[in-house]
Amino acid sequence: MKNSSKYKRQYFLPPVKCMDWTEKDHVEKAPIWCSVDLRDGNQALVIPMNLEQKVEFFKLLVEIGFKEIEVGFPAASETEYTFLRKLIEEDLIPDDVTIQVLTQAREHIIKKTFEAVKGAKNVIVHVYNSTSLSQREQVFHKSKEEILKIAVEGAKLLKQLTEEAGADYRFEYSPESFTGTEPEYALEVCNAVLDIWQPTADRKAIINLPVTVEHSMPHVYASQVEYMCKNLKYRENVVVSLHPHNDRGCGVADAEMGILAGADRVEGTLFGNGERTGNVDIVTLALNMYAQGVEPELDFTDISSICKKYESFTGMTINERSPYSGALVFAAFSGSHQDAIAKGMHWLDEKKPEHWTVPYLPIDPKDVGRNYDADVIRINSQSGKGGVGYILETKFGLNLPPKMREAMGYTAKAVSDHTHKELMPEEIFELFKRTFENVVSPLSLNGVHFQQVNGGITTQVTSIFNGKEITTEAEGNGRLNAVSNALKKAYNFEYDLVTYQEHALEQSSSSKAIAYVGIRKPDGTLSWGAGVDVDIIRASIDALVTAINNR
Ligand SMILES: CC(=O)SCCNC(=O)CCNC(=O)[C@H](O)C(C)(C)COP(=O)(O)OP(=O)(O)OC[C@H]1O[C@@H](n2cnc3c(N)ncnc32)[C@H](O)[C@@H]1OP(=O)(O)O
Ligand SMILES: CC(C)C(=O)C(=O)O
Ligand SMILES: [Mg+2]
């Protein structure tokens, strides 16, 4: 990049150091949430939402639990205006929900906005004008005093029209482009607006401090917010609100640090839709709190259905890596992650700890309606025995011996590697059966008979190997051992039977059992087989034959 000298920092630090917020390490309670999906989100779409989409989106926001919703910029278009009228006239706004409307600080636009909200019960009228150095110079060609006057005139008109309407609308003011404004000047403008409004405990004013464009690291914003919180007049009657955008990718950090710095309220959107790189993602913010044990007071227990609705209303797509909501955010493909998750899940089952601490999963996917089977442990060529074993165990009830899990892990990895494909749980189960269960070639059995002799067992085994049938007799300290001895005698097989394990098969049929057999070959490596049968002896012999066939 050759042109870095073309740029300079565009933010301003407060005149005094404001870093008290660094004493805190987490957000202690949910802020007042305000969704701006229907306004800031909508104004950033290639094709803004139509009336029906806005109505459905509004209902979704109410269901999620938003109590303050910026429903639009009613003076912007007929759709915006009609939508608001529809909400009001069709009584679609619950009594505990306050609608918010945005207006520029221009007389005809404010007047149109007041027409639009007539008849609504709970209203916040939100007025803004840009205060930043670059907008003062380039857009408005006005001095600081003249820009302050725009804000004050706007504030006065809001007050006057509200009195004329006999309403008790609440007011919000945004020094738009706050992050490009000198903090002392932003403070002066906000205090001048507050002087007009004279907020009280019953009718607090909202001062919104937008990161209209994100120019700095989040700690700079936090210190700007702290400066405002410490110096705003009528502070106890002022709700300090944040409105971060995400130009540097730090919208969530801006909001979190801004709350630590004293803010009471956050404006944002679902999944971070909004101008350019978007507004702050309220899903992430809320679930970040949730993950630290703080009730977010918004309901994301069925995130997938919220995602689907959002995508259909806006035409946007949610990135697979979008925190908490993306399709892949709970997925672990890599072996060591899967191993740790599988062990963490076992720990959870056994110890039943008070808190969720499963490695690699910041929250329990089930809390947002995602499920372990489909979402968490997924198998490809990066996966290992832990993940494959976990799928066979949790989905198909197969509890393989540890070393056999390893063999199955490598088998699955090789298939995925060669096919360049993810393996679905059913494919893994099929692969297990094909590779390790009741394999009858080249060796198979045609008849096995036992006799109990002096505390030991004698067996007569008829087997076929490479098309040739042989019957041999042998003794053993148990039935499996006797059959193994008979087969060794018949074909001079060289191996040691080193692992035997069995368990009932609960998933496929309550009457069947599975046996696993591992044999050690002369070179020291292991070969594995499993047998499934209603008769556990038969299952164990089939497992042995499979292990021999796999050697
Ligand atoms: C950061 C944000 O998200 S702010 C919200 C932005 N959202 C939108 O703009 C969406 C809706 N807006 C619209 O539909 C239109 O802009 C309207 C209907 C509001 C106004 O339309 P128009 O008057 O035709 O155009 P426009 O917005 O470009 O007006 C620009 C004029 O308003 C002035 N202006 C812009 N914002 C403000 C403001 N907040 N307060 C006072 N004056 C303002 C400009 O200086 C400019 O003045 P000029 O005519 O003397 O040059
Ligand atoms: C209108 C204001 C609050 C805004 O959207 C912004 O500054 O980003
Ligand atoms: Mg905005």
Automatic annotation (TrEMBL):
Q: Where is this region: Regulatory domain?
A: 439-551
Pathway the protein contributes to? Amino-acid biosynthesis; L-leucine biosynthesis; L-leucine from 3-methyl-2-oxobutanoate: step 1/4
Keywords (alphabetical) are: Amino-acid biosynthesis, Branched-chain amino acid biosynthesis, Cytoplasm, Leucine biosynthesis, Magnesium, Metal-binding, Transferase
Catalysis: reaction(s): 3-methyl-2-oxobutanoate + acetyl-CoA + H2O = (2S)-2-isopropylmalate + CoA + H(+)
- EC class of the enzyme, as a word: transferase
* Cofactor(s), by name: Mg(2+)
Question: Where is the protein found, in the record's own terms?
Answer: Cytoplasm
Q: Where does Mg(2+) bind?
A: D40, H243, H245, N279
Point out the signal peptide segment.
none
State the EC number(s).
Answer: 2.3.3.13
Pyruvate carboxyltransferase domain mapped to chain residues: 31-304
> Which PANTHER family does the entry mention?
2-ISOPROPYLMALATE SYNTHASE, PTHR46911
Question: What family name appears in the similarity comment?
Answer: Belongs to the alpha-IPM synthase/homocitrate synthase family. LeuA type 2 subfamily.
The protein's role, per its UniProt record: Catalyzes the condensation of the acetyl group of acetyl-CoA with 3-methyl-2-oxobutanoate (2-ketoisovalerate) to form 3-carboxy-3-hydroxy-4-methylpentanoate (2-isopropylmalate).
Subunit field text: Homodimer.
Q: Matching HAMAP family, A to Z?
A: LeuA_type2
Q: What protein is this chain from? A: 2-isopropylmalate synthase
